[in-house]
Amino acid sequence: MEVHNVELTISAVRPEQYPQDNLPEIALAGRSNVGKSSLINTLINRKKLARTSSQPGKTQTLNFYNVEHQLNFVDVPGYGYARASKQDREKWGAMIEEYFAQRQQLTGVISLVDSRHAPTELDQQMIDFIHYYQFPLLVVGTKIDKIPRSRRNQSESVIRKTLQLTADDQLVLFSAVDRTGKDDVWRWIEQQCNLTTNGGK
């Protein structure tokens, strides 16, 4: 998709705050500091539209980004921050479950994991959560530029096996540094949102 116009529509915590534009939505989820903001910024050709929180684990809102008036990216708060209180974790879980369970515009979920390490138990729980709601799933292994090419197939295999991905789940290895995987991520998004593919640029 040719991306020129993107705006942060709203940071929501309740369903009544969600956008009412009926555009298809792609949610992006992952551990704190896994590279969600970098992926979003790379996809929309911006440097700083999606910002990293100065306090990981403290951003407890769903951030809706309108992309070309054709779809919304929904930036889900990062999970797994060690200092997050039990109350914050419970609040996070309730907000995400409410969004996943009720939002009819949600057409797919991108779950990010750090490709340098085996997925964590929390990563596995997120995948189970997505499978439970039967959303189309794309797993994005971030920071792939930090892994030698000779080891990338091994990294992909570890991610697939650890997360117990199904035949319907897709996996893309991604780098915000050299943009590896960007076009593949866009093609998946366009497919889920029934958008016309034009090269994913």
Can you tell me about this structure?
- It is a single chain.
- Helices cover 30% and strands 21% of the residues.
- The chain has helices spanning 36-43, 86-102, 121-132, 152-163, 182-192, and strands spanning 6-12, 25-30, 62-67, 71-75, 106-114, 137-142, 170-173.
- The N and C termini lie close together (5 Å).
- The model has no long low-confidence stretch (mean pLDDT 90).
What is the fold's blueprint, element by element?
Elements: E1 6-12, E2 25-30, H1 36-43, E3 62-67, E4 71-75, H2 86-102, E5 106-114, H3 121-132, E6 137-142, H4 152-163, E7 170-173, H5 182-192
Parallel strand pairs: 2-4, 2-5, 5-6, 6-7
Antiparallel strand pairs: 1-3, 3-4
Number of helices: 5
Number of strands: 7
How far apart lie the N and C ends? Answer: 5 Å
Helix content: 25-40%
- Order of SSEs: EEHEEHEHEHEH
Helix and strand content put the structural class at alpha/beta
| Percent in strands | 15-25%
Low-confidence stretches: none
Global geometry: globular
- Major beta-sheet overview: 7 strands, mixed
Strand order of the largest sheet: 1-3-4-2-5-6-7
How would you state the average pLDDT, rounded? 90
Report the radius of gyration as a whole number of Å: 16 Å
Tag the structure with descriptive keywords.
single chain; 201 residues; alpha/beta; seven-stranded mixed sheet; globular
